Amino acid sequence: MGAGGKTSRRRAVPWVVLALWIGVLAVASPFAAKLADVQRDRVTDYLPANADSTRVAELQSRLPGGESTELVLVYHRDGGLTRADRETAERQVGRIAGEHELTATPQGVPSRDGTTLMYPVISNEPGDDEDKRSAFVDDVRETARSTDGLTVEVGGPGAVTRDAKKVYDSLDGPLLYTTVAVVAVLLILIYRSPVLWLIPLVVAGIADYLSMGVAYGLNQAFGTAISGASTGIMTILVFGAGTDYALLLVSRYREELRRIERPYDAMKAALRGCGPAVIASSGTVAAGLLCLLAADLNSNRGMGPLGTVGVLCALIAMLTLLPAILVLLGRRVFWPLVPAFGSTPKERRSLFAAMGGSAGRRPVTVLVSGAVALGALALGTLNLPGDLKQEDSFVDRPESVSALLTLADAYPERSSQPITVMTPADRADATVQAATATEGVESARIGRTAEGWTEVSVTASAPPQSAAETRTIEALRDTLDGSYVGGPSAQQIDLEKTNARDQRVVVPLVLLSVLLILIALLRSLVAPLMLVAAVVAVWAASLGIGGLVFGPLFGFEGTDPGLGLLSFVFLVALGVDYGIFLMHRMREESLGGAEPAAAALTALRTTGGVIASAGLVLAATFAVLMNMGLVSLVQLGFVIAVGVLLDTFLVRTYLVTSASVALGRTVWWPGRMAKAPQPAPVVREPERV
To answer: What pLDDT shows up at residue 44?
Structure first.
């Protein structure tokens, strides 16, 4: 092809890519707009797939009126309720009963000390419609209002679900805006350009919109669960991982522009140089997240496909749309720091060159010191608070939790939260008798019946989520053969057991899948094992730091049962990214003839700044979760953000580099690069006679 043909192709390809993206977005747009319609944050969406409590919730939804909305109206006055207080309570409860279809007329239960009066309110009116359930709770709260020193609170499982839904609803808007703002500020600081920072941000936004359309398609085609938490994580991954890929590509593109004249050819060289590392990086994240499909917990299993969609959409956008835009804008997009053809960057003593120098001089000392530091931090896991209880799951105490605590103080002799048993209809009477005879049960009564199943409401004598109530639930499950025992407290028990089970199953799968991808990319066994060991150490240290601050600094009373598994999946999958960037460049330098130590230090010097920038962006995006209202999200965001920073500024810069220097060519064993290059044979000229 002649020079004219090549020039035409250079001009045409970016425009073709833009046209294709416009077409893709036109197709995806109607589906992306519908994602909110299929988002569900029901109890069953966050429960184990095969647990008793999940089965109870599913059977309840098939009863007349669907799943019940259970509330508790709590009337309280510190000095004791007055006659006027009781009249106010009866008037408000009567109005609620007159305006809504309740399963029974609410009866007041006074506390022994006379300070509190509670009315259980149960309705099937909203059925399984989430919006109607939320509206019902809001309407009850509007009617049951505090007055003249009388405190009125609406609690119960339905109120807790409503308060949690408010938090998940806040993930759609504020989480996106905050993430975009944080990434924008960091990109401006990194690029120091009035234009360049905006391009990766816009491309990431387009990738996020595309991921929403793909997520909706998965839901319609395969029934993939869409929850507030999973869509929030998907958005964070698009902006966090996508910006990381953009940083690596732009850095390599800037480097190539100094030695290649035409932007199109420079971008081709940049894609050839860093493309394999970016693809492998996204592959490890996707593989790790897809391992969550083996989880039994519905919320974890749904998070896997959506997280994978986010990462892959970010990858495709950053390797196609971003290069096209950069090529069309040319060198001027880097203004005022334009990389001129034939120029060389200013020589300056970089921080990473200094770090590499110290790691290169005493690699074993640096490696041992870093390993000891990570081990010491990991000991903090011994200080992690116990499993998170329902009343401790919100950062700011909502009304439902305040009502729960008031009930616990006023009614220490009984539970204010029913245990729900679903039993075959022909055994309902026998189930009530067996339940009543169980130790720790105060009462049991028959509720609705449909499709061969009867609902039995059991009241325990112990407070909700206490050790005594847990024993009662376990005793009911042992006693009531053929029945399912559920309810809020039983759900917490099942969550803890299932998270432990999922961790035993998913963790080995994540390690194996990531290890296989690294072996295929690096064509070595030692280097992949080194990288995997490093990210596991980072995960343990990050959890340890969480143990040191969750209770003393944040005031958290418990640890989310799923924190260990989710933080492991994200930190291992995302943390290996930076190892890939570093080791891939090290391998490239080694193939170019550099000695092992020189290759390691050159790789750190050339990629250290990019890795640091990417680490800061990724840590900041996950730190956005710390602004949400659920303790589980705050803990997850903190551990991942801390882990990414540890991985970026300690493990990659010091430990991996020092280990690579200490191991020398052994780091590439058993590949051919592990062998020392053989000297070229000496060709002797024949002696002249």
So the answer is: 67
CA-nearest of 240, 310, 167, 166 to 634 is 167
SS (H, E, C) 296-311: CEHHHHHHHHHHHHHH
DSSP string covering 425-459, please? GGGHHHHHHHHHTSTTEEEEEEEEEETTEEEEEEE
User: How far is residue 467 from each of residues 66, 440, 462, 478, 558, measured CA to CA in Å?
Assistant: 31, 11, 8, 17, 15
How far the first Cα of the chain sits from its last, in Å, is: 54
Amino acid at residue number 88: T
* DSSP per position, 307-376: HHHHHHHHHHIIIIIHHHHHHHH-GGGGTTS---TT--PPP---HHHHHHHHHHHSHHHHHHHHHHHHHH
Determine the 3-state secondary structure of 551 from DSSP.
coil
Both tokens assigned to 338: 């334009």
Read off the pLDDT of residues 324-346 as tens digits, 9 standing for 90 and up.
Answer: 999 999 888 888 888 887 777 66
Q: Is the peptide bond before 336 cis (omega within 30 degrees of 0)?
A: yes
Take residue 261 and report the two structure tokens written for it.
Answer: 């004249």
The token pair at 578 is 């930076």
Cα gap 246→265, rounded to integer Å: 18
Give per-residue pLDDT as tens, 522-574.
888 988 898 889 989 999 999 999 999 998 888 888 898 889 999 998 888 88
- What DSSP line would sit under 88-108, residue for residue? HHHHHHHHHHHHS-BSS----
Beta bridge partners of 484: 422
148-203 pLDDT tens trace: 889 999 988 888 888 887 877 766 667 778 888 888 888 888 888 888 889 999 99
Query: Are 614 and 636 within 8 A, CB to CB?
Result: no
The 10 Å CB-count burial string (b at 16+, else e) for 579-590 is bbbbbbbbbbbb
CA distance 535 to 447: 52
User: Would you give the distance in Å from CA 442 to the centre of its chain?
Assistant: 40
Question: Are 539 and 567 a contacting pair, CB within 8 Å?
Answer: yes
**Cα 195 to the center of its chain, rounded Å:** 31
Bridge partners (DSSP) of residue 421 are 456, 485
pLDDT in tens, 438-491: 998 888 888 888 889 998 989 888 877 788 889 999 999 999 988 999 888 888
Positive or negative, the CA dihedral 384, 389, 393, 396 is negative
Cis peptide before 670 (omega within 30 of 0): yes
* Beta-carbon count within 10 A of 201 CB: 18
Centroid of chain to Cα 17: 32
Structural element, H or E, at residue 421: strand 419-424
Is residue 603 within 8 A of residue 585, CB to CB? The reply is yes
DSSP state of 380: G
Please give the Cα distance from 463 to 454 (Å, whole number): 25
**To which residue do tokens 């944050």 refer?**
41
